[in-house]
Design goal:
The complex is a heterodimer. Chain A is α/β, with parallel strands linked by helices. Chain A is built from 11 helices and 12 strands. In chain A, the strands form 2 sheets. Chain A has an 8-stranded mixed sheet with strand order 6-7-8-3-9-10-12-11, sandwiched between helices. A 4-stranded antiparallel sheet of chain A has the order 2-1-4-5, with helices on one face. The longest helix of chain A is centred in the middle third of the chain and has 18 residues. Chain A is globular, with a radius of gyration of 21 Å. Chain A starts with 6 loop residues before the first strand and ends with a helix. Chain B is built from 11 helices and 12 strands. The two termini of chain B are 28 Å apart. Classes of the chains: A alpha/beta, B alpha/beta. At the A-B interface, helix 7, helix 8, helix 9 and helix 10 of A face helix 7, helix 8 and helix 10 of B. The structure holds adenosine-5'-triphosphate, adenosine-5'-diphosphate, iron/sulfur cluster (2 copies) and magnesium ion (MG) (2 copies).
Chain lengths: 334, 334
């Protein structure tokens, strides 16, 4: 890819200083996103999806967090080391975020419209007049396909259903025309028929508005509906990064394969599901080599050394010695 | 190789029989939550039946009422031929042993100050005359058979992972040798790789304890497809469709089932063409629509019929039921 990435995260590492010691939550993550790309970030509970995407934009308080290395560039501009004030501006104007529980981000005592108008004005540093902001707000409510925008504008958050609140939050996030949207489990709290509506909407926004997005989910099926690329995280590292079709049809990393084999399929008969044996590594004392080694059927001596991400081809990266030519040599020597 | 599909003879003895069940909850503001309405469901001995529906559809209430943890407003319930509603204190004790329930959150189901062994022994001490060596052996055997070998037996819940805790909950139920097991979203709080283990354990029970009857409650259709022989689909307190899992999933007869199935995020790269989206939200169970409860969202609702006349229970095929005026027609469409 020759385009300039919109977001470029390099060798990003973060630890939490805890009572029990140093917890290595994120270790050497590389991730870049081209404009207009929708990336799904998947992995099981606690693997670091939220910490990574929040810390990159200054949203993880330090202490206890400590960024121990790397760089985060948004359109070529380094974000690590920016002042809190500058980071707040980045978050208001260039990067927008939505989360699992919209109610946490809506104030129950103000009308939806008031909150939208205030947010839009704040995004422009107070430049936008109230009636302009209102016009933008109504336009956005229409874009997120909220039924009857004028009525919802005057409603209080508790009068809306979970799906409608998530639409309001998406409207609020997109009003500033951000360069990047981070959606952290945006449909996890919703019912399946409502989830389908919101996923359709997000897929449309990506296609029609050219939105660049990172969508976080523990559900591979959910990101497959919206994203073109998937990055799989395990224990604070990205272990595989490939186009959606590759992840499902030709997964390379043993962990990705394990996740897929564990998944029940609604339209297929399956006699057995494969579970992944063993448990997560202790990130207070992470091993030097592959963090998946203790659970991997292909673990070999070479896996005890650090395993970098390597390219299988232009669009597919994987962190596994199975794709390392040195692995064969290692075995021959042994 | 796939095993042949096992379906019990439809005329086997009933283990759980629910007839015309109503469960209503009065609210402080004078409204009435109609959590369950005119619901009938029969589970044959040894059957695994899935109860699926969106949040608030009444699944948990059905499960709890069946075990007499909630008092029904009207209707009949029998477990193994015993009337559960007009039950003496002595019979209730017997019921508590013969019918067991497992909840979503294994953590809050376990006493943090009790070892695993104690947690599993308790029910036996309370309900049986087993003591000493025999009791100890029975507990150890049960835990070990569920993949928790001796080194775990003296641990406390906080020393176990989520999946291990859920296995303890299953052991605690199975050690009493129940006839009926109600499982309320037992894997919803677990990661997929751990969910695969628990689903494997539950599926094995069909072979190792062929007379055990399981009512498996879940909002996850893929999980139901994997585990269950029959499925009942709930909407606003009613069962709207029921039948053998393969048939219902392959050719749903009720429009709600079709919508639910087409909303499932499928873990694969190709998007399914047969998409059907519901508009709007689920009505409140305090204000259930007249006629067919689904008519406000149904894409094929007929004015003058569906909004006035409750649909009859039609039989779109052997062993099947669909609560829709046009149950036959919708089968042809899929
Ligand atoms: N004690 C109660 N008082 C008032 N309403 C109740 C009570 N228990 C349940 N309900 C209501 O009954 C309806 C059905 O509840 P239930 O928990 O059985 O649904 P569910 O399908 O299992 O939901 P979920 O998937 O969210 O757990 C809901 O509207 C719920 O709010
Ligand atoms: N404030 C904190 N102090 C210590 N550990 C933390 C803190 N916040 C998150 N962690 C740990 O960092 C890891 C990654 O968390 P998170 O990114 O929230 O996971 P998820 O992928 O579920 O979103 C987890 O193991 C979590 O326990
Ligand atoms: S690097 Fe080695 S241990 Fe890690 S996933 Fe690959 S083969 Fe398995
Ligand atoms: S009875 Fe009418 S409204 Fe109800 S599901 Fe059938 S077609 Fe739809
Ligand atoms: Mg998270
Ligand atoms: Mg429930």
């Amino acid at each position: 890819m020759t385009d300039h990435p919109l977001l470029d995260i390099r060798d990003f590492s973060l630890v939490f200083d805890t009572f029990d010691g140093t917890y290595h939550a994120i270790d050497g993550v590389n991730l870049s996103l081209q404009p207009g790309e929708a990336l799904g970030l998947v992995g099981e509970t606690g693997c670091g999806k939220s910490v990574l995407t929040r810390a990159a934009f200054g949203l993880v308080p330090s202490p206890p967090a400590r960024i121990t290395g790397g760089s985060v560039q948004l359109q070529g501009r380094e974000l690590l080391g920016l002042s809190d004030r500058a980071l707040r501006q980045v978050r208001g104007r260039e990067v927008a975020m939505i989360f699992q529980d919209p109610m946490t981000y809506l104030n129950p005592v103000f009308r939806v419209g008031t909150q939208l108008v205030d947010a839009i004005r704040a995004q422009s540093g107070g430049q936008t007049k109230r009636d302009e902001a209102k016009a933008i707000a109504l336009d956005m409510l229409e874009k997120v396909q909220l039924p009857n925008p004028n009525r919802q504008f005057a409603a209080y958050p508790h009068e809306l259903s979970g799906g409608m609140r998530q639409r309001v939050l998406i409207a609020m996030a997109l009003a500033a025309k951000p360069k990047l949207l981070i959606a952290d489990e945006p449909t996890t709290a919703l019912d399946v028929t409502i989830q389908a509506q919101i996923l359709d909407l997000m897929a449309e926004l990506v296609a029609d508005m050219g939105l660049t997005m990172i969508m976080i989910s523990h559900d591979l099926g959910v990101v497959a509906q919206v994203c073109s690329r998937i990055a799989v995280m395990y224990a604070g590292k990205i272990v595989e990064d490939a186009p959606v079709a590759r992840i499902f049809d030709a997964p390379a990393h043993p962990y990705t394969k394990g996740l897929l084999a564990a998944l029940p399929h609604p339209f297929r008969r399956q006699d057995r599901l494969e579970s992944i044996p063993g448990t997560l590594p202790d990130l207070l004392h992470p091993p030097a080599g592959c963090l998946f080694a203790a659970r991997c059927p292909h673990a070999a001596p070479i896996c005890a050394k650090p395993v970098p991400m390597r390219r299988i081809d232009d669009s597919h990266r994987v962190a596994c010695t199975l794709y390392d030519p040195a692995r064969e040599k290692d075995r021959a020597d042994a | 190789m796939l095993e042949p599909i096992t379906t019990r003879p439809p005329d086997g003895p009933a283990m759980l029989s629910i007839r015309d069940l109503d469960v209503h909850f009065p609210l402080a503001n004078g409204q009435l939550v109609r959590a369950v309405e005119q619901l009938s469901l029969t589970l044959r001995a040894g059957e695994t039946v899935g109860l699926v529906g969106e949040s608030g559809s009444g699944k948990t209430t059905v499960g709890k009422t069946a075990l007499r943890l909630v008092k029904p407003t009207a209707g009949h319930i029998e477990i193994g031929g015993m009337d559960v509603i007009d039950v003496s204190a002595r019979d209730l004790r017997k019921l508590r042993q013969k019918a067991q329930i497992i909840f979503q959150d294994p953590h809050s189901s376990l006493n943090p100050r009790m070892t695993i062994r104690r947690a599993v022994s308790e029910g036996l001490i309370l309900n049986t005359d087993l003591r000493g060596r025999t009791l100890r052996d029975r507990v150890s055997e049960t835990l070990t058979s569920l993949g928790l070998p001796a080194q775990f037996h003296d641990r406390y819940p906080h020393e176990l992972s989520g999946g291990q805790k859920q296995r303890v909950c299953i052991a605690r139920a199975l050690v009493l040798d129940p006839d009926l097991l109600v499982l309320d979203e037992p894997t919803s709080a677990l990661d997929v790789s751990v969910q695969a283990q628990i689903l494997g354990i539950l599926k094995d029970l069909r072979d190792t304890r062929p007379s055990l009857t399981q009512l498996f409650i879940s909002h996850n259709l893929a999980v139901i497809r994997f585990l269950c022989e029959r499925v009942a689909v709930m909407y606003l307190g009613r069962i709207v469709e029921e039948g053998p899992v393969e048939q219902v999933f392959d050719a749903p007869a009720h429009p709600y089932t079709r919508a639910l199935l087409s909303a499932v995020p499928v873990p694969e790269a190709v998007k399914r063409p047969d998409r059907m989206r519901l508009s709007g939200d689920i009505p409140s169970p305090t204000n259930v629509p007249k006629g067919c409860a689904f008519h406000t969202r149904c894409p094929i609702a007929e004015k003058g019929l569906c909004d006035t006349t409750p649909p009859p229970a039609l039989t779109p095929g052997p062993g099947r039921m669909a609560l829709c005026h046009f149950a036959g027609r919708t089968t042809e469409q899929t």
